[in-house]
Amino acid sequence: MKMKTIFVGIMSVCFLTGCTADDEYTQGQWIRRSDFDGVARCGASSFTIDDKGYLCCGYRGSNRDLLKDCWAYDISGNYWTQCADLPDEASGRHKAAAFALNGKGYVTTGSIKDEPYYLADTWEYDPATDTWLQKDDFAGGMRYGALGFTVGGYAYVGTGYNDNYLKDFYRFDPNAASGSQWQIVNGFEGGKRVYGLAFVIDDVAYIGFGENNDTYVEDFYSFDGTTWTRLRDIANTNDDEDYDDDYAIARSSAVAFVIDGLGYVATGDRNGVTSDYWVYDPEEDLWHGDSDDDYTPLTSVHYGTGGSSRSLAVGFSTGSRGFVLTGSSGTSYFDDVYELLPYELEDD
């Protein structure tokens, strides 16, 4: 969905409908899918394996009950199936990191109610057997609000919070011998952060967002498994350029997914919960989004009842389809599921 593609789409619609030069169109529509079958929650963890998205853990209710259940969403069939809970030895948790690797899903770190408040244990989910297996504890130590991604046949987890903001990264190899599955990865020069995010395009991870000491982090990096590269900031920080004049991208507790080689960042906390989304083109190292008046926020839904602004939601991505689900507005917890149709044009 590069801007060239958007232009062609608009021209096609005008040709078919006979629209005039005064007609205006908004890019993208959100469609409501089958509601999550579990209880409403936020701070859950998610990963995608083949054509299924998995949601695990999180918290719910005014007393923030911590959960350890796991659910699978059949993306093609649009239905949910309950999977095995995390085992008895594993604590219910929220704000854990998660990723998929070699056909299995992983949940690591997170937060619990009681001391020591943070976790470092790592659990592997095998969808073929619907079972969990404990792997090595995360080598960076206990934390929550870390981010995880998979590049080059390995998984990476880093940043987060454990009474201090963190910026370290570790590589995970589940096939390594016990005691050596996590190895430190050096070279990241970016800022410390909690509630950051990452998405992967063509086996390159793009890392950023989050907050540090009540300030939204504005730096943005790519990582190919070997080299960290600093990209353009996600805020208006360059006085010599005007491409970022309307950037309002920096935020924490957001959702990321990939559709057709473009990165999408949606919802999150930006001086209050948000519903907008932004699109990243790695070829241009540029963002397009709500400030362009081209993109429809989640609250402007034309199928179903309409979504709500939220943070601490989760996302699923197959590479060609992207979803946002669950989360919290601060006073309410959600169990709704929305898919973004990025090429659909809405007549304003």
What would your notes on this structure say?
- There is one protein chain.
- With 348 residues, this protein is mainly β.
- It has a single domain (3-347), classed as 6 Propeller (Neuraminidase).
- It is 4% helix and 43% strand.
- It is built from 1 helix and 26 strands.
- It has one helix at residues 3-17; strands at residues 25-32, 45-49, 52-60, 65-74, 79-83, 97-101, 104-111, 118-126, 131-135, 147-151, 154-161, 165-172, 182-185, 197-201, 204-208, 211-212, 215-216, 220-223, 228-230, 255-259, 262-266, 277-281, 286-289, 314-317, 322-325, 337-347.
- The strands form 7 sheets. A 4-stranded antiparallel β-sheet has the order 1-26-25-24.
- A hairpin with a 2-residue loop joins β20 and β21 (262-266).
- The longest helix has 15 residues, at 3-17.
- The protein is globular and about 55 Å long.
- Residues 1-23 and 301-305 have low confidence and may be disordered.
Show the helix and strand layout.
Layout: H1 3-17, E1 25-32, E2 45-49, E3 52-60, E4 65-74, E5 79-83, E6 97-101, E7 104-111, E8 118-126, E9 131-135, E10 147-151, E11 154-161, E12 165-172, E13 182-185, E14 197-201, E15 204-208, E16 211-212, E17 215-216, E18 220-223, E19 228-230, E20 255-259, E21 262-266, E22 277-281, E23 286-289, E24 314-317, E25 322-325, E26 337-347
Antiparallel strand pairs: 1-26, 2-3, 3-4, 4-5, 6-7, 7-8, 8-9, 10-11, 11-12, 12-13, 14-15, 15-18, 16-17, 18-19, 20-21, 21-22, 22-23, 24-25, 25-26
